[in-house]
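Ticket reopened. Same input as before:
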Amino acid sequence: MNDTLSFFSGFGPRDFLFLGEAALRTLWISVIAISIGTGMGVIFGWLLFEGKLLATLTLGPVLDVFRSVPLLIQLVLFYNFAPMVGLNLAPFGSGVVILAIYTAALVASVARGGFEAVGVPMRRASRSLGMSYWQDLRHVVMPIGMRAVFPAWVGVALGVMKDSALVSVLGYVELLKASQILITRTQQPLLILALAGAFYFALSYPISRYAARLEERWEQ
Amino acid sequence: MITISGLHKYYGALHVLQGIDLSVEKGEVLSIIGSSGSGKSTLLYCINGLEPIQQGQVTVDGVDVHAKGTDINKLRQNMGMVFQQWNSFPHLTALENVALAPRIVRKKSRAEALDIAAKQLEHVGLADKLNVYPNALSGGQQQRLAIARALAMEPGYMLFDEATSALDPELVGEVLDTMRLLAEEGMTMICVTHEMSFARDVSDRVAYFHQGVMEEIGPPAQIFGDATSAHTRKFLANVR
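Engineering reply: fixed in the latest deploy. New output:
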């Protein structure tokens, strides 16, 4: 019965490469989604901070929905219902869209906190020098406020990177999906999941180390 | 010249300034004294356009500060302001703190802005702190940094809002010395202050504010020696 052996074969070097590629895909989808989401989130955060009542009544609840509904449900709903309105996105595209909006919803409240961290006296000082609203925002409020909430943003970014595993349900072959494929073939779940975990760690750790270094530099 | 006429300012129902008439000539040093809540700091904010007014007029060199068409950002470049809290930009070195506004507001080149900044820091006695971040500076040094930052815009007027009130007592002197230096150089200054010796020795005129009203204004000798208002006399007796 040697035939069955070729059906279930053990974990090999090529599988390791396969996992590595998948890790790159996880990194890729995360980088794109987090970048877009952060940009949107900062704008939303500014609207919440500055627009006060109007933004709180309109934007606030929408962001609350994206923050509260489990990402898995958002992904499945979007992937299946977007084509109905003529939006035919591949799993990658759908994943980017939902992860970016989800990131934006989380970053919005972080960024708002950053804008609020810069007090009125500081803003009066910069305006008294003749800076316009936008110059003050660009050169004083953003650098000070965004540094204040940087640790919180790193937390969001790392969280989203790990949550990107959920895009596997749409069939996008990132780390988790790749692991599932390998487990099905090799029947070595412990080894493969441990490896996948190690890959996630390898992606996250440098980021949090680098973030800590940045914070240290800003401290002085 | 700064001219204030019939100025009324409310915070909600609170009538903070109740009809102020005042003018400050080029080169003059005016000190404003009075107890907390008398509206003296609010007056500075109204002169600078940081607070809207409800009635009256403030003009700086003939330009109406609160008129709709006024380019307030341009006007403020001519009025340096120093606050009770020094508000150094924590993400920039002392040199960059001072160079920021000349560079982005006055559109100077980076080299030119840094040059101006170095000169102004030297002016206030911080020549050895150019590349230090504000949190490594003492309160007095940060307040002098704030003065240099305002001076870097080459303003015609300087407004001081209790510049020494938040400082530890031993740091007050260095900031007052810097303000004295500016006065000697002929800078037009309005100083809201609790430092009576500064008001007496440095100012050309002293104004006493009481509950939103300018009770009395005159040369230091008159205010400190021969005040006509009972409120003024009582206040001065208490601070001595």
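The two ends of chain A are 69 Å apart (CA to CA). Residues 213 and 219 of chain A are 10 Å apart (CA to CA). Please confirm and we'll close it.
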